[in-house]
Amino acid sequence: MLTAEQNQRLTSVGPSTPMGDLMRRYWHPIAAISQFKTRHTSRVRLLGEDLVLYQDRSGTFGLIGSQCPHRKMSMIYGVPEEQGLRCAYHGWVFGEDGSCLEQPYEETEDPEGRFKEKVTTQSYPVEVMAGLVFAYLGPAPAPLLPRWDIFVKDGVVRDIGYAEVPCNWLQIMENTLDPIHVEWLHQNFADFIAQQLEAPEKRVSRTPHVKIGFDEFEYGIMKRRVVEGGSEEDEDWATGHPMVFPNMLRQGLNRKGYRWQGFQIRVPIDDTHTAHWWYACYPDDGDQQRPEDYTFFKVPIPELDEDDQPRWDLLDNNSGQDLAAWITQGPIADRTTEVLGRSDKGIILYRQMLEENMRIVADGGDPKNTFRDPSTNEYIELANESDPMFARPLYNGQAAATKYSPVLAGPLTVE
Ligand code: FES
Ligand SMILES: [Fe+2]
Q1: d(CA 178, ligand 2 centre) in Å
Q2: Residue 175 near residue 325 (C-beta atoms within 8 A)
Q3: From residue 176, how far is each of 111, 191, 336 by CA, in Å?
């Protein structure tokens, strides 16, 4: 149980809040570049700030304030130029550094004038990696964009799922430190869902946990489990899989015909909304898949029907089940009335890690997973119980990637 002040401190991400300051020290994904095949601008709300991401005709991405500084029309209507984005209303052009590059009528009226030098719009740095556009909203100098293994690994195909989740980011992350939910939400409840859908082929039986463990390590918290019939010799315990600080789950699977590795990335939009990314890769036999071709798909938000009953069809997968658990805790889970048990020790460790890193930032230091030396950022390997999948290519091509997406697949999961 937390006090109201503690809960607010852990969940509020706006400018000049302790958690907002911590989250601003990291690069966050804001778009898949494959989305920009059919668009030039994208609405971005990140850590409580309204922005527009655009790609100009030279291919450069820019992240600028959502409203034109002139008379405030939204830049979502902006027209891409060779360099920069032109406001639809009166044609002023802004570059990716926020500078005003053109100011048509003002320049005609006063050719010698220097008005445009006085005009800027908000801007933040962006970088493209692994088919994603990342943004950094923190103080300069920006740290390096971490090159986590599956972002830079060769010989895989990838897909990218997205949902805008109407709840605070912390309750989603806490789910990552909660292995016990797998046997109930993704097995017992999933079996009930299969019954409701009269889908006997989807019925699953529950595999109880007999032991769970959490170890702080260099990049976050390593999670371990022993399930009924298993032992500490199993990879699930001996290796485990990590929560990557501050807001990613690394997961994978290499059994029952499923072979993939992935991240779930939870990016705070504001205090009551989270941008959720499912990033997955699959063994490939040599197909060259370009980052601009990575499949992008939206994950539906489960809801109740007109009779206030669950939409079972939207709950028939891991992500639908997780989303229902996260969202129904409320826009910001009330931790002043929670009742934590022994199964929640990973959540307690994670909250302590957040507190410790908020203090480091307040004291002027670099929090966990800040990389500034390129030699330590070439390929950051994350141990994972299902790693051997990469030694045995199984799937071929993008269609396979979509078909076997962990989001779209059945009740199998490792969390
Ligand atoms: S409002 Fe954008 S140029 Fe006038
Ligand atoms: Fe889950």
Answers
A1: 8
A2: yes
A3: 59, 21, 20
Which CATH fold topology does 149-403 show? Naphthalene 1,2-dioxygenase Alpha Subunit; Chain A, domain 1 (3.90.380)
All residues at 6 or more sequence positions from 28 whose CB lies less than 8 Å from its CB, including other chains: 46, 47, 134, 135, 136, 137, 265, 267, 275
pLDDT digits (tens, 9 = 90+) for 70-93: 999 999 999 999 999 999 999 999
- Find out whether the beta carbon of 90 lies less than 6 Å from any atom of ligand 1: yes
Which residue owns the Cα nearest ligand 1 atom 1?
71
Instruction: Return the pLDDT at 257.
Output: 63
Q: CB–CB of 169/13 below 8 Å?
A: yes
**Residue 378 dihedral angles phi and psi, to the nearest 5°:** -80, -45
Strand 156-165, strand 295-298: pairing: parallel
Question: Is the separation of the CB atoms in 157 and 397 below 8 Å?
Answer: yes
- A 10 A CB-CB count for 332 gives 18
Per-domain boundaries in the chain:
40-136, 149-403
Q: What is the rounded CA–CA span in Å between residue 212 and residue 195?
A: 29
Percent of all residues in the chain with a pLDDT value above 90, rounded to a whole number: 79
pTM for the full predicted model: 0.93
Residue nearest atom 3 of ligand 1, based on CA coordinates:
90
10 Å Cβ neighbour count for 407?
21
Q: DSSP letter at 60?
A: -
Residues pairing with 262 in the sheet = 251, 280
> What residue spans of 25-162 are helical by DSSP H?
104-109, 149-152
Two structure tokens written together for 148: 């986590």
In the chain, the N- to C-terminal Cα span, in Å, equals 24
Q: CATH assignment of 40-136, given 2.102.10.10, 3.40.50.80, 2.40.50.100, 2.60.200.20?
A: 2.102.10.10
